[in-house]
Design goal:
globular; about 425 residues; seven-stranded antiparallel sheet; five-stranded antiparallel sheet; mainly beta
C-alpha cells in the first residue's frame, strides 16, 4: 500500500462463570493497613493484566491468573468473578455492561447491576495459547463490543439480543488494535454522537468500517469506508501508510484518531493523527523510542504521548488544524521511562506512572502552557510505601469521582492514591 502524503508536523465454547464474595479473612484482597493516604491491595501471586472503571464506580481488575476482581472506589467490598482460563487479558466498560477477554479465546459480557455473566462468545483466529486463541484487544461503544481476532475484527451486541457475533475482514495483516470512533457532531469540548465507525490498526495503516444500521429494531451492519476526501483511495485501509500502527486512541469528540506508529520495527515511534472529517493526516514526531502511553483529555483539547522519560502534550484548538504549527509541551518526572498516563475528570491534571514505580501528577491547561513543566508545586510525585524500586507502573485510571488515582504495578500491587498524597519535588 502506498503511504499517504499529506500535511505533516515535525515538532522538536466458553464455560459457565460465577461470582463469589471474598471472606473477610482473605487478606490478599482486603485493603492493607498503611500510614499513607488512600488504600492498597496486593495480587502478588497473580499480577494485573487489565484495569477499568465501571460506570457504577467499581474498580475492575483482570488478573493474569484468570479471575476478575471488583473493588469499590474505597478499595473494599471485594467481589471475584471467574474470568478467563489462562488469564483475563483485557477489560472495557460501557453504559450497558463491561466486557472482558482472555487467553481462553472468549469474550464475556457482564451485567453492571447484578455482576453476572450475560453472554459469552468464542472467537477463532489469532495467536493460539494453551487454552485457546489469545484475545487481548477489545473496545466498547454504547451498545457493541469489538475484539481483534487474528486478521479479523469480531463485533457483538452488549445486550446480546440483536447480534450474536459479526466478523469483519479478513485484513491483509494481523489486527493490532481496535477502537470505536464517535460521530461527527461533537466539536472540541463537546461529547460526540454515538460511535458510528470502527477502526482497526495493522501493518499498512488503519481500516475503517461505517455502521449503516443504527435503529433499535435492526441488527447492526457495517461497510468498509473505501475513501475519505483527503486520502488516496484504498480498498482496505483509507488511513494508510507504510508502517505499523500499534495502538489507537480516538478523541472523545469524534473528530480525531491518533495512533502510535513506526515505519520499521527498530525505529523510534511517532504519533500519527487523522482528521476524521476528511482523512487529512499529520505526523507528531520527536519521540526518543517506543510510545508507551497515548490518551486524550475528556474535552479532546489535549493529547498526551509518553516516550522514554518524557510526556508530550499536543494541543487542539477550535478553528485550527490540530496541533500543526504549535510547539508541544514536554513534561518530565524522575527521568525514568513513563509507562502509563491518564487525565483526571475535569482535565485539570495529568497523571503518569514510571518504570521506577513513581507516580507523577502535572497540573495542565488546554488553553495555555502546561503548568507542570518546571519543578514547582504543579509537578508532584507519590511513591507507594514499601514498594520496591523498579516495580513499574503498568496501568493507570482515575476513579469515577476523580478523588483517587488507581495504579497497578508489575508486582501485583494495586493502590488508590488521593491527589493530596502527592508531594512537590
Amino acid at each position: 500500500m502506498s503511504a499517504s502524503k499529506r500535511q505533516r508536523e515535525e515538532p522538536p465454547v466458553c464455560g459457565e462463570a460465577r461470582s463469589t464474595e471474598k471472606s473477610p479473612g482473605d487478606s490478599s484482597e482486603q485493603p492493607e493497613a498503611s500510614s499513607e493516604p488512600g488504600w492498597r491491595v496486593s495480587h502478588s501471586g497473580d499480577g494485573v493484566a487489565a484495569l477499568c472503571i465501571t460506570p457504577s464506580g467499581c474498580v475492575a481488575l483482570g488478573l493474569h491468573a484468570g479471575p476478575i476482581v471488583l473493588l469499590s472506589e474505597g478499595g473494599g467490598g471485594t467481589r471475584r468473578l471467574d474470568g478467563h482460563t489462562g488469564g483475563t487479558l483485557a477489560l472495557a466498560s460501557g453504559k450497558r455492561g463491561f466486557v472482558s477477554a482472555g487467553a481462553d479465546g472468549c469474550v464475556r459480557v457482564w451485567s453492571l447491576d447484578s455482576l453476572t455473566l450475560e453472554s459469552a462468545h468464542s472467537l477463532d483466529g489469532g495467536t493460539r495459547g494453551v487454552h485457546g486463541a489469545l484475545v487481548d484487544t477489545i473496545a466498547v461503544s454504547d451498545d457493541l463490543w469489538a475484539a481483534a481476532s487474528g486478521r479479523c475484527v469480531c463485533v457483538g451486541a452488549i445486550d446480546g439480543l440483536l447480534l450474536d457475533q459479526l466478523r469483519l475482514g479478513p485484513q491483509p495483516h494481523a489486527v493490532d488494535a481496535v477502537c470505536w470512533v464517535g460521530g461527527d457532531r461533537g466539536g472540541l469540548g463537546e461529547p460526540s454522537a454515538q460511535a458510528q465507525r470502527l477502526a482497526a490498526a495493522s501493518f499498512g495503516g488503519v481500516t475503517l468500517w461505517r455502521r449503516v444500521s443504527v435503529t433499535a429494531s435492526a441488527a447492526p451492519r457495517f461497510e468498509v469506508v473505501s475513501a475519505l476526501p483527503a486520502c488516496q483511495a484504498s480498498p482496505l485501509a483509507p488511513l494508510s501508510f507504510d508502517g505499523w500502527a500499534r495502538a489507537l486512541a480516538a478523541a472523545p469528540c469524534g473528530g480525531w484518531l491518533a495512533a502510535s506508529a513506526s515505519l520499521a520495527v527498530d525505529e523510534p515511534q511517532h504519533v500519527r493523527l487523522w482528521r476524521m472529517a476528511d482523512g487529512a493526516d499529520f505526523v507528531c514526531a520527536g519521540h526518543a523510542g517506543q510510545v508507551r502511553a497515548l490518551c486524550w483529555s475528556r474535552d479532546s483539547r489535549l493529547l498526551v504521548s509518553c516516550s522514554g522519560p518524557i510526556a508530550t502534550l499536543w494541543r487542539f484548538r477550535p478553528g485550527q488544524s490540530g496541533p500543526a504549527g504549535t510547539a508541544p509541551q514536554r513534561l518530565e518526572g524522575s527521568g525514568a521511562t513513563l509507562t502509563a498516563a491518564a487525565f483526571a475528570p475535569g482535565d485539570g491534571h495529568l497523571a503518569c506512572g514510571a518504570s521506577d514505580g513513581s507516580l507523577w501528577c502535572f497540573a495542565v491547561s488546554a488553553t495555555g502552557a502546561a503548568k507542570g513543566a518546571g519543578t514547582g508545586p504543579s509537578r508532584r510525585v507519590w511513591r507507594a510505601e514499601g514498594a520496591a524500586h523498579g516495580d513499574a507502573v503498568e496501568h493507570l485510571a482515575w476513579s469515577s469521582s476523580g478523588a483517587l488515582l488507581i495504579a497497578c504495578f508489575t508486582s501485583g500491587l494495586v493502590v488508590g492514591a488521593p491527589l493530596r498524597a502527592f508531594r512537590s519535588e
